[in-house]
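note to self: dont lose this again. the chain is below, predicted strucutre after it. 490 aa total, dont forget to put it in the shared folder this time
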Amino acid sequence: MKKWQYLLIALTAVVVFFVVFKIHLDYHFPYHVDEWHHISESIRLGNYGEYFQVLRMEQANKFTGIEIGFHFFLFLFSFVFNLVSVYQFFPAIWAVLSILALFFVIYKKSNNFWLAWLSIVFFASIKSNVNITGIWFFTPLSFALPIIFLYFYFITEGIEKYNKKYLLVGMALMLLLIPIHSISVLFSIPALIVYCLFHYKKVLKNSLFIYLLLAVILAGLLFYKYVFGTTWLGIIPSIIYNVQFRYGWGVVEDKMSLFALYSWIGYLLAVIGALFLIFKKEYKKYSIYLIWPIAVFCMMIIYRLTGVSYLSPYQRNLYYFIIALPFLSAFGFYSIIKWFLKIVDKIPLDIRYKYSVRDLTIFFVSAGVIFITFFSYYYVSKRFELYRVVEKDDREMLTYLSQFPRSTVMATPMISTAMFSIAHKDPVGDLVFYGNRKDVEAFYLSQSCDNPGKIIQKYNVKYIIAPFIIDCDFSQLVYKNNSNYLYRVK
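---
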C-alpha cells in the first residue's frame, strides 16, 4: 500500500469514530440496558466468586453465563478505568476495529485497495437501533464483528490454499468467540456447511481442518455443559431445545423492514455486485460472500414461515445478513465504475478533456452514492429510538448511595438497571434482567403505604430511591437532589 492509501484509511477510521460517537456528545453514559447489564456482570466477576453463584441462581432466568468472555474483557478494563465513565467510547473504538478488520480481509482477498475501502464505507453505513443493537452500542454482538470477518477469512483461505497457519488462526478465533458470543459462531454453521460442500475436494484433503473442527465442537460442548449444568446424556437434547429461538424470544418482536438498517442503494449495489461476480466468473474466489448472505436469508425466511429461528435469533440473523452485504455493494459499485471507464475510453475526445470528464463524473457519482447511503443514518423509528437509562442527577444519587454497605434497594426500573454498576447495590427489580419488576411497579403505583410496606419487608429493602416524596412510617429521608429522594428504611 502507498502512503496516501494509509492516510485515507486513517482518515476514514477517524470519521467512523466520530460518526458512531456522535450519539454520545450530549449523553455520557451507556444507552442500552444490555450495556448496563454487562457492566454489572463484569463487576460481579471480580467479586470473589459472586459471578458464578449468580450463574447458578439465575440459570433458569435471563443470565446463563454464555457471555462470560465478554464480561472478563470488561473486568480487565475495570482495573484501569471506571467502566461507567469510559463505556461511551467503546462503541466507536470497536467500530473502528471492525472496519479495519473488514478492510484487512477484503484487501488480502482481492489485492484491491478501492474495493476494500468501499466495503468499509458501506459497512459504516449500517444503522443501529435498540432492538437489533449494532455498532452504536458495545455488546457481545458488536465485540464479535471484527472476529467474524477474520474467522470467515482465515478458515476459507486456509481451506482453499491448504494453509495450516490460516486454519489454526481461523479456528482459534472461532474458539475465542464461543464464550464471548456463541451465537456469532452458531449462525455461520449453515454457510460454512454449504461452503465446505462447494469445496468438498479441498476439505477432504485438509485433515487438519477436520481435527480442528472437532476440537472446536468439543470445546463448545464442554463450555455449554459447564454453563447449563447438563449431563452428558442430556446435553444434545438440551442444545437442540436451546438453539430454537421461537417468536417472543426477544424483549420486543418486530418484523422490521430490511431498509431500517441498510440503504436502498446499498441493497441495489449488492444485487449488482452478486450478478457481476457470477457473470464475470469470480464467484469461486468470493464464494463465501455469496453463500453467507444467502444462507442467513434462508434462516430468516424459515423463521417468518414457522415462527422458529434455528441456531440464532431472528434479530441477530437480520444483522448477520446485512453485515455480509457491504462487500457485495462495494463490488457492485466498483464494477460499475470499471464499466464506465471502458465506455469513456471509447469516446473520441481529446485525452485531456476525456480524463477530466471521467474523473469529475466518478467523483460526483461516488459522492452522491455515499451521501444517499448515509442520508438517514441517524433516523430511528420511534419504537426503537434511543432512550436514557439514567441522567446526571440519577448517577449523583447512586454515587452517594455507594458509600453505604451492600444491601437491597428499591428504585424505579430504569435507575435499578444502573444500580449495581454505580452503587454496587442489589435492586428489587430492574428493567429486564434481575429481580421482580412487577413488584417495583406496584410499589410506586400504590396509593397507600400498606402494600409498599409489605414489599419492603418481602425483599428486606434497606434504602429507597423515589422521584417523589414518600410519607410513610417506614421511610426516613437521608438525601435528595433535583430529581430524586433517598430514604433509609426504619
